[in-house]
Amino acid sequence: MNGPMVAFACLAGLTLYSAWRVATAPQVTHAALFLAATFAGVAGLFFLLQADFLAAVQLLLYAGAVMTVVIFAIMLSEMREVESDARGWRSLLLSPRLGIVPLVGGVGLAAILLSAYHRAAPSWPLSPLPAAPDSTRFIAHALFHAYALPFEVASVLLLAAMIGAIILTRTEGGAKG
Amino acid sequence: MEKYLDIVIFTVAGALFPLLTVVGTAIIRRRYPDPVKQGAYESGEIPFGDARVRFHISYYIFALAFLVFDVESIFLYPWAVVYLHLSRGLAFGEILVFVAILLAGWLYAWKKKVLTWM
Amino acid sequence: MNGMSLGYVLVRSVILIVLLMSAFAYFMVMERKVIGYFQLRWGPVRVGPWGLLQPLADALKMLAKEDAQPLAADGLVFHVAPALTLFVALAAFAVIPLGPALHIGGFLLPLSIANPSTGLLFVLAVASLGVYGISLGGWASQSKYALLGSLRASAQMVSYELALGMAVISAVVLGGSLSLPRLVAQQSLHTWAFIPDILGFVIFVICSVAETNRAPFDLAEAEGELVAGFHTEYSGFRFASFVMAEYINMFTLSALGALLFLGGWNGPFGLGPSVWWLLTKMALYLFLFIWIRVTFPRIRYDRLMQFGWKVLVPIGFLNLIWISVFVVGGGWR
């Protein structure tokens, strides 16, 4: 096993383990902490693929900004621990930690993804990576030449998101409660 | 990719340094647990109620606004990198439209008194 | 990676960590001394000549303190938060180049741990994770002061992060790269970036004070109302790691300010590049931190948020447009 393979195994393991803990943690703040670890693991995978810019964006946006919103949402809600799982056959079937249904569902989803990957794989060029490409510059040229219109539309989308957020969180009459 | 491994090594070494110091000096640290000491500090009063009270929605609105503007600033980084070398008139027009649309969102937020802390 | 290069990285890491720790220790002494002189006091003078052994005494005290933890606290998060804060601060510092690569006997010694092509974005991305340690640490303590302090601190940090980003982007427009050494090289070709971009520099300074939660933006730990803010319930070495992270973040931001706006390691008046220029600029920047701290009273929280969103963000946007007009007009050729 070579260096990148070891790094990939570690990062993939971290990502999968913390994703599993997000689903099973009884305390919602712990789930948030593990969600952050999942995002960080994905960012690590991007670094491994030499997608520097995407990795930094993953950290800045998902691990930074989205997680801030999540943490604030948790602090705004009633923070009680989730009641322990129902006893008996229901827990055996449905409990996220060791239930049969979540397990089968997860394995099935993984199988579907893997088979999709196998069907699509031959069309992906598996050439060795060019030496240290400046991915930011590449993305910028794509963004401002070929995809200039989608780029401007993205700003309209962000405007819509902003207005939507304000309308949803504001109550009538200027007073917020 | 190796440069990121270097960063990991540095960070782990840097975090190990205080950790080892703390473990190594555990012997001089005393430990006298006490129910009063282990309560929450409320300026000498006996703590009452649950500390995890619900918070004002303002915090959440600011977080959402931050998220929107943060996504937008991510788009500005690649633009800033190539701006010196790009056909400037076009790049300037593109970014002017982009920033203008976002400033409209910011103005809307101001008019709706979202940016006023209450 | 073979054993040779691993050892090379380890040696450089240990040197940088020792330097950082001593810089942290003596910057604390300097801060207390400077504040003392500002207030017509002596500052620390008892331990060692001129109080120079003060940091040793402080470290020993911190290590010997009981590691108290509230019974109601959330164990896992309470322990993770200070470690995470320190970890993130160190990772951000790793990509800061402290000077041009040194030639020592035909051997090239780079003055940073790593130099990725998107170094600047990496610093900002990692620094944006600093908000976790603070918000989670305050939440885990199960204390009202701590929770209030941490919420205030995180809302403040994200608000000022935006304006900070605007200032940084204006410097990137002038430098045309996200690589810190290249930004410095660009400034040696033209002139230092703060000359056209003075507004960006001022925004950067204000935001760096707010990002490190220092006076007058230290609402997170406003002693008068919140005891010690998010680290009210922390004591001993856990408290110390929060403080250490705050100071390392100050070093990172002062280095970033010097690299982005003040010409990095280029000397003034056409003098050649040197590590010492950067260190001098960082020292001046850090002195500015202390000066601001002793001069200004704390801002009220609602004004702090409004100042960030209604003043700094729009000025940041307008400054960005001014800088791009400046570049289009051929002012940077």
General description of the model:
The complex is a heterotrimer of chains A (177), B (118) and C (333). Chain A is 73% helix and 0% strand. Chain A is mainly alpha-helical. In chain A, helix 2 (28-48) runs antiparallel to helix 3 and helix 6 packs across helix 7. The radius of gyration of chain A is 21 Å and the shape is globular. Chain B has one domain (2-111): NADH:ubiquinone/plastoquinone oxidoreductase, chain 3 (Methane Monooxygenase Hydroxylase, Chain G, domain 1, Up-down Bundle). Chain B has helices at residues 2-24, 57-82, 88-111. The mean pLDDT of chain B is 78. Chain C has one domain. Helices cover 66% and strands 2% of the residues of chain C. In chain C, strand 1 (102-104) and strand 2 form a beta hairpin. Chains B and C meet through helix 1, helix 2 and helix 3 of B and helix 1, helix 3, helix 6, helix 10 and helix 12 of C.
Which helices and strands occur, and which strands form pairs?
The complex is a heterotrimer of chains A (177), B (118) and C (333).
Chain A: H1 3-24, H2 28-48, H3 52-76, H4 89-94, H5 100-120, H6 135-146, H7 148-169
Helix pairs in contact in A: 1-2, 2-3, 6-7
Chain B: H1 2-24, H2 57-82, H3 88-111
Chain C: H1 3-38, H2 54-64, H3 75-93, E1 102-104, E2 107-109, H4 119-127, H5 130-140, H6 144-175, H7 180-189, H8 198-211, H9 223-226, H10 236-261, H11 275-295, H12 301-328
Antiparallel strand pairs in C: 1-2
Q: In percent, how much strand structure appears in the residues of chain C?
A: under 5%
Major beta sheet summary of chain B: none
What is the count of DSSP helices of chain B, taking H or I runs of 4+ residues? 3
Estimated helix fraction of chain B: 55-70%
As residue ranges, the low-confidence spans of chain B are none
The rounded Rg of chain C comes to: 20 Å
What is CATH's topology name of chain B?
Methane Monooxygenase Hydroxylase, Chain G, domain 1
**CATH homology group of chain B:** NADH:ubiquinone/plastoquinone oxidoreductase, chain 3
Tell me what portion of residues of chain B adopts beta-strand conformation. Answer: under 5%
Largest sheet of chain C: 2 strands, antiparallel
